[in-house]
Amino acid sequence: MKSEAPLKEKKEKKMKLSLPAEELMHSGNLACQGCGAGLAMRYVLKALGQKTALCIPACCWSVIDGPFPYSTLDVPIFHCAFETAAASAAGLKAGLEMVGDTETTVVAWAGDGGTFDIGIQALSGAAERNDDILYICYDNEAYMNTGIQRSSATPYGAWTTTTPVKHFKNRPKKDIDAIMAAHRIPYQATASIGYPEDLYKKAKKAKDVKGTRFLHIYAPCPTGWKARPEDTVKFARMVVQNCIFPLYEVEFGEKYTLNIKPREKKPVDEYLRLQGRFHHLKEDHIKIMQEEVDRAWERLLRRAEAQ
Amino acid sequence: MKQKKKGEKIIFETEKDVPLMPMSVGSMLFNKTGAWRNIRPEINLAECIQCGICWKFCPDVAIAIENEFPVIDYDYCKGCGICAEECPTKCIAMVEERK
Amino acid sequence: MKKVIMGNHALSWGAQLGRAQVIAAYPITPQTQVVELLSEMCASGALDAKFIKVESEHSAMAACIGASLAGARTFTATSAQGLTLMHELLHWASGGRNPVVMGNINRAMAPGWSIWTDQNDSLSQRDTGWIQFYCSSNQEVLDTVIQAFRVSEALLIPSMVILDAFALSHTYEVVDIPDQDKVDSYLPPFNPPLRLTPSDPHAFGGLTSPEHYFELRYKLQKDMEKVPALIEETGREYERMFGRYLGQVEDYRCEDADIILISSGTAGYTARVAVDELRQEGIKAGNLRIKVFRPFPFEKVRQILARAKKVAVVDRNISYGHHGIFFQEVKSALYGYDHNLPIFGFITGLGGRDVTPATFREIAHHALAEDKAAEDIIWVGVKR
Fold first, then answer.
1. What class, spelled out in words, does domain C249-380 have in CATH?
2. Under an 8 A CB cutoff, do C198 and A52 touch?
3. A13 and B79 in contact by Cβ < 8 A?
4. Residue A45's closest CA among A142, A133, A136, A158?
5. Do the chains contact at B12 and C156, CB–CB below 8 Å?
6. Which CATH number fits domain C2-190+203-241: 3.90.1330.10, 3.30.70.360, 3.40.50.150, 3.40.50.970?
7. What are chain A's partners, defined as 3 or more CB pairs within 8 angstroms?
8. A1: in domain
C-alpha cells in the first residue's frame, strides 16, 4: 500500500538529500509513534555504516529492535546486561581485534538510565582506560522502557511515575558531559535529533577517532513526556534554541567547541508548556529552571571562548 | 531504487530448529506496523517542494524517495504525524484512517 | 619443563598455554597473583592477548562475554565477593553459550571479611549453568585449565576451575609445564559456529518470549549432559599426550572400603592421608574425591558407592536452611539406587578453619560408630 506516484507535469527537479539515502534501520520496529530514539539510531547508522557492532543494554532499544528471533537492523547487536554497556563493548572490541577484525566500529548504545545511573561505573572505567569504543547515550530523560521512572537524567521539575506531582524531581539533571570531560577522552559531543546533519557529522567524526568517544543525543519521548508524537522533532530543536541542551564538542576534556549559538535565546517556558510532564510547574519553578539554564549557558560560553 | 527487503514470520517446529544461541534469524519487516495507525498522512504532491524533510524525519523509515518525490509506505507508517508537522509547506495532511 | 609454582600461577600458565586471547580481570585477594603473572606474560609477549584492566568483576565478566561473542578465547579469575558480583553475568555466559574459562579461588563469603577458604562462593553458583572443576594440586589446576578450554569450546558452555584460598592458591608445588607445541596440538584455536560479525549480522540475546525461551534452555541442559563423556574422552587424550588423567572423580582405595569419605579440593588430598592412616589402624577406608561438580558425576558416584557400606560426605560449605551441598547432591544421586546405604553429612572447615587428617579420622570413627546418621548435619570443629 503506497501513496500516489507524482504527476509527470511536476518540474524535473532532482531531490537533494542532506543525508545518505542508504538505510541500515528498517520499518516494522517496535518504537512508539514519534520515537526520538528511533530517529537517533537511524542517523547514527547512516554515519557509521554497516561495519558496526552495537552493544545494547536494557533500554527501549532492547525492545525496539524486535524480539527473538527477529531484528530490525542490518548491523549485529550484542544485547547485554543493563550495567555493562561500556564493559561489554570494550570486551567485544578486544575480541574482534584478536580475531583479526580491526575495522568494525564497536558502539555501546544505551539510554540515559544505563549511562547516567547503573551503567556509569562501566562507562567511567572504559573512559579512564580510553578503551576504543564509541559510547552513545540516547537521552529521553527517564527509565522509559520500564514505564517512565526517574533517572538522574530527568530534568528538574519533571513528572515521572517515581517523581509524582507532589514530589516532582527537585534535583538538577546530572551533567554527564562534564563527567565525561573530566575523563579527558579524545572526543565527545552533544547532539540532537532535531539537527540530524550535525548529529551525522559528529558520528562520522567520532568513528574515525581512536579511544573512547562519547555522544550524548537528545531523543524526545512523547510517551514519557506526555506530549504529542508529532512534536518530537520540534522539541529536539527547541531544546537547542533555548539552550537547555546546547550542542557542543569537547576534545580531551579541554577544548570546547560550541556548534550552535542561537541568535536569539528562546525562553524555556515555551518548551515546557508543550509537555504534560511539566504541566504542574508554577512560575517559581520555571524561574529556577530559567536561571539554571542561563548560568549553565554562560559557563559553556566562557569555556568555548577560552580556546 | 534498491530491492526492498522482505520479512517473514518465523515458526520453530521443534527445539532442533531453534538456534543454539538466542540469536536473530529474520527481519522485523514481517511486522506491519501500519495497523497501529488511527490517522494517516497524505502528501499533496502538487504543493510538495521536494525538500526531503519528511523523508529525513520519519522514525519508522516509512517514507521512501521514488522518482524524486516522497512516497509513504502505509504498511508501516504508524501515523505519528512528524512528517506533517515538519513539512515546510504544510502539504501533508493527517486524515482519519479509513476503516 | 618442571617448575615450582604456586596454585595461582598454575592458572596463569594454563591461560598462557591455552593461548587465551582476551583477559579481563579485577584484583581480589587471594587471586591477585593470577592476574599479575598474566600481566607480565602479556607485557613480555609470551602471551598474545589483550588484557583489559576492568574496574570491577562484573565488568570483567561482561567484557569476557563480549570478547567471546566475537570469537575470541577468553579467561578471567576471581574469588568470593568478585565471583558473586559476577553472578548475573554467570547466567549470561551460560545462557548466551559463551565458553569463558575462569579460575575461582574458593574464599569464604563476607561478612565478616575473610580471605580464607571454604566453598560457598563457587557452590552458590551451581545453578548458573557453568561446568565446575574442583582441583587439589597445582598440576591439576594447570591441566584442568587447558582441558576446560577444550570441553567448554566444544559444547559452548563456560567453566570454572576452582582451587582453595592459600591452601592451594599460595602453596608452591612442583608442576610439569607442558610444551606449547604439544598443547597446541591438543587444543585447536577457538572456532565457534556462530559469532558476532557485521559480515553476517544477527542480534544476540534479544527479548525472548515464553514461546522460545524454554527450548533454548532445554538445549543448554542437553549439552551439559554431554559434558561427562567429553571430559572422559578428552581426558584420555590428554593422558596419552601428557601422561596425566583427570577425569570426573578420583577413587582412592574405595574398592573394598567399609567407609567411603567423599571430599573435594585440598581437603580431598588430606582425606587420602587419613585413609592411609585409618588403614594402618585396620579400618578399610576409602576416599572419593569429586573433581567435577557440575555436571554432577552421577554415574561415577553411583558406580563407586555401589559396594560401599557407609558413606561420610565432608562438606566445606553449607546451604543455609538445608545441609552440606555435596551431601545433598550425593544423596539425590543415590535416590532410587540404594535406599539402605547410610550416608552421613559432615560440615567442617568453614571460613578456612583447618581441615587435617585428624579431622577425617574423627569423621570416619563417628560414622563407623553409628548405624545411621542421627542428624543431617554433623558439625566437626565448631567450638560448642
1. alpha beta
2. yes
3. no
4. A136
5. no
6. 3.40.50.970
7. B, C
8. no
C53 contact residues in A (CB cutoff 8 A): 129
Give the mean pLDDT of C219-233: 98
Of B12, B20, B24, which has the smallest distance from its Cβ to C203's Cβ? Answer: B24
List the CATH number of the domain containing A104.
Answer: 3.40.50.970
Going residue by residue through chain A, which has 307 residues, state the pLDDT in tens, using 9 for 90 and above. Answer: 555 555 555 557 889 999 999 999 999 999 999 999 999 999 999 999 999 999 999 999 999 999 999 999 999 999 999 999 999 999 999 999 999 999 999 999 999 999 999 999 999 999 999 999 999 999 999 999 999 999 999 999 999 999 999 999 999 999 999 999 999 999 999 999 999 999 999 999 999 999 999 999 999 999 999 999 999 999 999 999 999 999 999 999 999 999 999 999 999 999 999 999 999 999 999 999 999 999 999 999 999 998 6
pTM, to two decimals = 0.96
Contact B22 C204 (CB under 8 A): yes
Which residues pair with residue C254 across a beta bridge? Answer: none
Report, as an integer, the average pLDDT of C140-164.
98
Tens of pLDDT along A130-170?
Answer: 999 999 999 999 999 999 999 999 999 999 999 999 999 99
Nearest CA in chain C to B12: C212
Domain that holds residue A121: 36-305
> Would you say residue A30 lies in a domain?
no
pLDDT over 50 (residue B1): no
Task: Report yes or no: C104 and C122 within 8 Å, Cβ to Cβ.
Answer: yes
Location of C-alpha cell 579485577: C26
Domains identified in chain A, total number: 1
Closest CA to C205 of C197, C214, C216, C215: C216
- In chain C, residues with a C-beta closer than 8 Å to the C-beta of B15 are 215, 218-219
Judged by DSSP in three states, C312 sits in: strand
Q: Are the CB atoms for A102 and A95 separated by under 8 Å?
A: no
Give the gap in angstroms from C-alpha B89 to the nearest C-alpha of chain C: 40
Contact B67 A69 (CB under 8 A): no
* Torsions phi, psi for C53 (to 5 deg): -85, 80
Q: What is the pLDDT of residues B44-99, one digit of tens each?
A: 999 999 999 999 999 999 999 999 999 999 999 999 999 999 999 999 999 999 76
Is CATH 3.40.50.10240 the classification given to domain B34-96?
no
Query: Which amino acid would we find at residue A25?
Result: M
CA distance B19 to chain A (A): 9
C113 backbone dihedrals φ, ψ, rounded to 5° = -50, 130
Q: What is the 3-state secondary structure (H, E, C) of A59-127?
A: CHHHHHCCCCCEECECCCEEECCHHHHHHHHHHHHHHHHHCCCCCCEEEEEEECHHHHHCCHHHHHHHH
Quick one: pLDDT band at residue B2, thresholds 50, 70, 90? very low
Report pLDDT for C178.
Answer: 98
Helix axes A120-129, C57-69, angle to 10 degrees: 70
Q: Give contacts of A 132-191 with B, CB under 8 A.
A: none
